[in-house]
């Protein structure tokens, strides 16, 4: 039997930022020293309300005064893993004054900086990178798919563990899915003194949400095969 591929393909920082923004239902707006929580419940995500444009472009504010604003987003794992905070995204820029986030339906923001902070460190993303990146097709359904896996098919998680190389340590106390993206699924292996995240890549990346189930089935099939090697080839 051919060994399961250890090649790990993961989203770029720009992909992660685009997907976090697309899936977010709330954000913290910081301006004039005030922090305001804004909840967006119409399903469009914040980028359906905020258009980012380059400072070199002609101002969309028509010469009106502008104020510095910071938009903060948090990416929380939908499953009950340890340390559920997966990432923070911060956008800075200028908005026309006065700006009332609770009342605004659409606003044009002069882009300043995009910062992603996660387990890999800090990454600065340019506006060009954001505009050139597609939203992960899994972003809008990741939470529901992972909670469905944990709540309705928890027996499949130990099956997926068969693909982890090197094999999990004997002191592992729990394994749960912590993330799902177009490239694969990430499992969090929890130990008494910490945790480890391992990625299981799909055979090929998902380009449409309809491909998600077949990709997961391919991983599960590979896991089952790993327990039943073809002895004629050994």
TrEMBL record:
Transmembrane segments: none annotated. InterPro entries: DUF2470, Haem_oxidase_HugZ-like_sf. Residues 143-219 form the DUF2470 domain. Coiled coil: none annotated. Signal peptide: none annotated. This is DUF2470 domain-containing protein.
């Amino acid at each position: 039997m051919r060994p399961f591929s250890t090649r790990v393909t993961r989203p770029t920082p720009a992909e992660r930022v685009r997907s976090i923004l697309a899936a977010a239902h709330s954000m913290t707006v910081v301006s004039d020293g005030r922090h305001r929580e804004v909840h967006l419940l119409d399903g469009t995500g914040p980028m359906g309300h905020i258009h980012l444009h380059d400072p070199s472009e002609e101002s969309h504010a028509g010469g009106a005064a502008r104020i510095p604003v910071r938009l903060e987003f948090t990416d929380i794992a939908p499953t009950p893993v340890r340390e559920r905070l997966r990432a923070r995204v911060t956008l800075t820029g200028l908005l026309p004054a006065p700006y009332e986030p609770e009342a605004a339906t659409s606003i044009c923001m002069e882009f300043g900086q995009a910062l992603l902070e996660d387990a890999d460190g800090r990454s600065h993303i340019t506006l060009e990178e954001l505009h050139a990146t597609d939203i992960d097709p899994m972003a809008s359904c990741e939470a529901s798919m992972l909670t469905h896996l944990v709540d309705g098919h928890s027996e499949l998680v130990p099956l997926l563990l068969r693909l982890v190389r090197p094999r999990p340590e004997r002191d592992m106390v729990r394994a749960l899915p912590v993330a799902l993206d177009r490239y694969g699924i990430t499992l969090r292996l929890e130990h008494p003194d910490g945790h480890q995240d391992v990625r299981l890549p799909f055979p090929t990346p998902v380009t449409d949400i309809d491909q998600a189930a077949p990709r997961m089935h391919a991983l599960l099939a590979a896991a089952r095969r790993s327990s039943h090697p073809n002895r004629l080839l050994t």
